[in-house]
TrEMBL record:
The keyword Zinc does not apply. This is Cytochrome B. SUPFAM superfamilies: Transmembrane di-heme cytochromes (SSF81342). It comes from SAR86 cluster bacterium. It is found in: Cell membrane. The chain crosses the membrane at residues 16-37, 57-80, 101-119, 170-188.
Amino acid sequence: MSVKNTSKNYGTIAKWFHWGTAVLFLVSYLSIYYEIWFTPGLPPPGVPRDPAYWTSLQIHLSIGVSIAVLVILRIIWRIINRQPNEEAGSKLEHLAARAGHYALYAIMIIQPILGYIGTSVNTEYFFLFEISKFEETALFASVVSDGLGMTFQEFEVPIDFLHKEVFGRWLIWILILGHTSAAFYHHFVKRDRTIYKMTNNKKHSE
Ligand code: HEM
Ligand code: HEM
């Protein structure tokens, strides 16, 4: 198995990025819905925070930040690496596959940014170190306060709407469902090597 991509397969590093990110997405969803469904949520001022609420929220934030860092490294790796050859298919299928992959890259960048700029708490990155919330940065002061003349409370409404309702509840699910359906369509209907390219299975490869 090669570290770099070959004409037939994704290499070890591309596979780790791919499956590692898929697991991070899953844990990101599990942690935030655990927080929303099973913990009391943000307490009113003066009331102590519930530890399960804070831990599950911080896991969500830390994982989101990790996805953002990983996607940058992944894109660099993709640029300096060759792409495996595409399986046979119509022009439209190739176009749809490429558009789908670019859209997945886009959500891996946009969703963590929306989460970060819309949150009212600092990120305690896996409880190792703290990342200041956007509201406390110079960028917020110059762009949002001075530039747009908005308070954080006004600014977070549309941002939270995009992060939670548009991307979190709908867009990401639609893209991932489309992506996995396409992978299974290749495997079970077209019976080509698409899934093997992204797994360790050596079937039909050189
Ligand atoms: C790709 C990464 C991410 C994904 C897939 C994601 C997804 C989600 C989802 C599904 C929700 C709940 C939506 C609902 O209300 O039904 C949510 C809420 C939230 N996310 Fe993210 N998120 C990501 C990254 C981030 C980051 C990086 C931050 C901040 C640093 C963040 C902060 C929040 C906050 C504060 C909430 C609201 C929690 C609450 O309602 O108590 N997210 N996110
Ligand atoms: C069970 C879930 C998943 C399966 C079965 C799966 C399968 C695959 C396969 C077979 C490929 C190779 C496609 C090709 O070369 O034509 C691929 C590529 C890709 N997948 Fe997934 N995937 C899954 C989850 C995810 C998730 C959750 C994300 C991100 C949110 C994701 C993002 C991508 C991206 C961006 C590519 C393109 C890689 C590149 O060429 O740079 N996948 N996936």
